[in-house]
Amino acid sequence: MQRREFLRFGGLTLAQAATAKLLPAQMPMHPATPVGNADITLRIAPVTVELSPERILSTIGYNGTSPGPILRMSEGKAVTIDVVNQTDTPEFVHWHGLLIPAEVDGVEEEATPTVPPQGRKRYQFTPRPAGSRWYHSHAMAMSDLHKGSFTGQFGFLMVDSGNDPGHYDQEIFLALRDWEPFFTSNMEDTDEEGQNDPQLEKPTTMNTDPNGLEVNSNTYSINDKSLGSGEPIRVRQGQHVLFRLLNASAIENRRLALPGHKFRVIALDGNPVPTPQLVETLFLGAGERIDAVVEMNHPGVWILGATEDAIRGNGLGIVVEYANQHRQPQWIRPSTLRWDYTIFGAAKGSQPAKAPDHTFDMVFEKVPSGSGKFNTFLINGKPYPHDREFVLQQGLRYRLIFRNRTDDAHPMHLHRHQLELTEINGTPTSGLIKDTVVVPYYGRASVDFTADQPGLALFHCHIQQHMDYGFKALFRYA
Question: What are phi and psi of 339, to 5 degrees?
Fold first, then answer.
C-alpha cells in the first residue's frame, strides 16, 4: 500500500510505524478527527525530554512532547486550531512556510494577537502550499534562554496535496535540535567548512572589536533522542526511504551525512526542486527543511549525523540499522562537505528568472557588543523596525539583494511569501522556490518574490539571538 492509499483508508504503514517509534507520543494529528470544537488542539505546557536515560531535560513543549505532534493537513481545506497556553507568559505559534493572513501568522510584529498566559487563542486558516512546513514559538527571547525557540516549542506540519506518487517505502521525520543553550564569548562557527566561495561582500577594512556574547550549546538530538539512545531507523536492503529533515535549531546551521549512501534531494523548504540531485552531504540553515530519498543499498549499521565530530559525539545523530545486521554503528567522514543550492535549480539553458519590477538592496552588518553584552545586527545601517522603508505594491515582483558583510552565514526568512533564488555569490539560477535562504558569510544572494499577500510581513534571520537584537525588518503593503 502506498502512502497516498494510507491517507485515504487510514491504515498503518511502515512510515507511520517508524514515526511512532522515532517520535514517542507523536502520532500524526489529522484535521479529520476533531478535538472539541476545533480540528486540532495544541497545549503549551512544561514537558520533560529524555534525551538519554542519563539526561532528562525540562522545557516547554506542545501536547506533552518535544517535538510536538506531527500535524497533517490537506492543501486548500480550511482548518481550525485551538492553542491553549498553560504557562505564565504570552505566546505565539508561527506556521512557518504557509501563505496565510498576518492576523493568524503567529507573529507579534505583524500584529497577530497573543495566546495569553493561562488562556487560549483560535487560529483559522486554509493551509497552502503543499509540502513540508513546520510550526514553532515566535516569542522574543532576548537574554532569556528559556523563551521562544530556545524552548521545545516546535513540530512538523505536513500539507498534503493528494498528488504524492508515493515512490518510497518509509517516510521518516527528523528534526535536528540543540538544547541547554548558554552564553559564551568563544563561539565556534563551522559555516566555513567545505566552502570555497568568493567572498564578494567582505569589507576591505575589518572591524576588530571583540564580539559580544553569543548563544551556544553542547547538547544535541535528532527528534527527542541523542545519538546512542532510543530506537534506530530500521530498514531493509532495496528500500527507498523518504527523509523529511528540519533544522529546528535556534542557534546554528547544520551539516549531515549518512556514510555509504547518497541523498536524492527532491524538495527544499517543502517545494519540489526543478532538478533533483544526488548529494553526499546535506546543509540546513536554521528553519530550513530538506526532503530527500535514500536508496538503502549498503547493508550495515550506520550513523546518520552531523559531520562535525564534537557535535555528533554530543548527540546530533541517529542509527540506521539494516535488517539482520548486528554490529557497532559506523561513521565515515564524507568525501565532500560542499553544498550548492544552484545544482537543484532549473537546468542550464532554461528560462532565466523573470526580471523584477523593483529591487531592494539590503546590507547586513554586525556591531560587536552594540547591545551592551550582546551584538547588534543592522540592515542598511539600522536595526528593526525600518518603518516605511520596505513598502510593497500589490502584484509587483520584487528582488531582494542580500549583501552579508558579517562573518556568519545567515538563514533569512520572509513570512507569508515564497522566494525564488535568482543568484548566489555571482552564480545565477532560477526555479528554486524557498522560504528561508542561507546567505554565505561575506557573501551575496538574491531572491525574487511577488507581492501577493497583503498585510504586514516580517523578514528576519532565523537565528533567535540575531533576530532579537535587530536583525529583522517589517515589509508593508502600500
Answer: -130, 130
